Amino acid sequence: MFLRQCLFAATLAAICGSIAPAAPDLGANRFTSPEAWGVSAPGLTERHTPRVFGAHASSSSTREHRLGRDADAVLDPDRTPERPDWTDVDHDQLWRDRVFVLFTIETLLERAAAPGIAHERKARYLESAWEYLQPMACDPLLDDSAAWALLGRFALEVGETGPVADRELAGAAAEALRRLGSNEEQLRVAGRLEVLAGRGVSDRVRRLREQHMATFTAAADGDPEASLKLAALFDPEQTDWAQSPVARHPVGVVHWLEKAAETGHTEAMNRLAVRLLGGWGVPADHRRAVELAENAWDTSGDLWSRSLMAWAYVNQLGIDETKDRATYAARLARAEAGDLRAMSGVGVMLMYGRGVRENEVEAVRWFRKAADEGDAEGQAGLGWMYALGVGVLKDETEAAKWFRKAAEQGFAVAQNALGWMYENGHGVHRDEAEAARWYRKSAEQGYSVAQRSLGLMYAYGRGGLPRDQSEAVRWYRKAAEQGLMVAQSSLGSMYGLGRGVSKDEAVAVRWYLKAALQGDSEAQFRVGSMYMYAMGVSEDSAEAAKWYRKAAQQGHAEAQYMLGFMYRLGRGVAINDAEAVRLMRMAAERGYAPAQRDLGLIYATGEVGLPKDPTVAIRWLRLAAAQGDSEAQYILGVIYEYGRGVARDEDEAKRWWRLAARQGHHEARQQLQERGESW
């Protein structure tokens, strides 16, 4: 059963891509990695909206009491700072605690600014302060001059090394203090912030704030479209500094998505579900993500909701047996009453055993019942069952027939599936032009998997389309913004290589990181390499090793090799020859030529504690050489020339040297030239 599920998931992934998330683990150094603190920041809901910090309290005794009771836990730099537990604090209590919070922040900032303080301690104080300041920075209607003064002091203290771009936070704080400042000290802080922000930035913030105030007010009053617009303004992937008057921050994105989702807004529910799946700006919560997607699909039949829901089912995410049983029972009741969408939903849940015992034959029955009534989703579901041989005998021709019926009705998922079948010649004759035609129909409806497939067609000039990297980037971006991890990785590659877009390694890292956090092993390897070679981020061998390890654990051969290399040299990890050899062997057994070559060298020389074994050495070197590894070819030539572990054979040595020389190997060419040989 397990093997069949794995095979099914693998086949489906080939057709549909993947959005399966993994729990984020970005380490503790948030100041050098802005994405890191953003991904793990707490989400905000109506119950603990940042605007509660606008309340006023005046009891100095309360201040002293609270500080005396809790300050040690917050201010001790030898302890890991703990962020406030927003979810367990009620609304009224937050109002009562405002003075304590502000006083604590002042103390933290004073300690951070103390002369001679060690860099590590300073960073810890600032990190603790930011845990409290962070929600304030995301409140566009914050009208508290004391809070803005603290935000301004924080911006001045962290400068360009902080967790937010200094110009953004400084400009927003300067504008607010000019507007709200109640004393000369606050106006002096505003002046210093304007210098930090740069000429004209604070004025631009003011103009933009005035332009967007109607949106802010409408969103605060519960308008979902206004909330969705604010979520985009807070998102650094969608909005640049010139467009947004507030500190762009993932917590702000999540806050306004929450507000819109509470009204049942389908797009907001989908966008929030994607962030909950990947842990972007909010802790990952697969159960809630699935619930949002299910609700959006059940009420509107939205394509994006369906995709998110289906992938959660495929990857067994967000399982809640009580809720799942209730969902199945509700869908079954609607299906038995003749609801065609519910029939397909029942089929999907039976297919994956979600909320009900798995029953593939019964799933086929419900898909067929809907399909016979002309329902496109039922037809597509029946096509999947025939394509994969689940609940029926595998029949790709029959699968293509049902996919076509659904595709001709405009069902985007079926259009993408039919495109895949034409591209690969399954159930139909292979026809890349026809594949591209169906991919486009699906992509133009917003189906992310088809958007990425169409992007690939443009990237390589296939299906009768011109080779157009800019057009490839455009389609990759559409899919990536919906959370499709393979598209995010593809978009990262385009930025990293400067194809179809200006080369920008920092942007490449951000897209790779999104895919890496969802568990994409290639993206994890790329993030590791960016840290290893200081591309778009500061060099950080420990961070590189962390991401290589994540990819290596998924069987990524090149990551296994690189992690073994790091253990060999002690870069980012302690030297461990045994672990280095183990990882190198894993990569070699997966067919990675450099690992095969290096493992052969280790056996040839008897390094790192392994016994010399010329026979094993030659076996690994031959495997690498057969893949065209010029260094392995050169080494084999040396072995045969000097008879190291084999009978001396000059002709065999020359043969290997010629192969290496034709690839430009300098030493191989020298060896042949010295013997008067050509290559």
Question: Can you put this structure into words, describing what you see?
Answer:
With 679 residues, the protein is mostly helical. The protein contains 35 helices and no strands.
- The parts where pLDDT drops under 50 for at least 5 residues are 1-96
**What can be said about the biggest beta sheet?**
none
Helices, by number, come to 35
How many β-strand stretches?
Answer: 0
What's the helical proportion of residues? 55-70%
- What is the strand content? under 5%
* Helix-strand makeup class: mainly alpha
What overall geometry do the principal axes of the alpha carbons give?
A: globular
Average of per-residue pLDDT values: 81
Compute the CA-based radius of gyration.
29 Å
Cα-to-Cα separation, first versus last residue: 56 Å
Write the layout of secondary structure elements.
Elements: H1 2-16, H2 34-40, H3 60-75, H4 91-96, H5 98-112, H6 119-137, H7 145-158, H8 166-180, H9 184-197, H10 201-220, H11 224-234, H12 250-261, H13 266-278, H14 286-300, H15 303-314, H16 321-336, H17 340-352, H18 360-372, H19 376-388, H20 396-408, H21 412-424, H22 432-443, H23 448-460, H24 469-480, H25 485-497, H26 505-517, H27 521-532, H28 541-553, H29 557-569, H30 577-589, H31 593-605, H32 614-626, H33 630-642, H34 650-661, H35 666-674
Helix pairs in contact: 3-5, 5-6, 5-7, 6-7, 7-8, 7-9, 8-9, 8-10, 10-11, 11-12, 12-13, 13-14, 14-15, 16-17, 17-18, 18-19, 19-20, 20-21, 21-22, 22-23, 23-24, 24-25, 25-26, 26-27, 27-28, 28-29, 29-30, 30-31, 31-32, 32-33, 33-34, 34-35
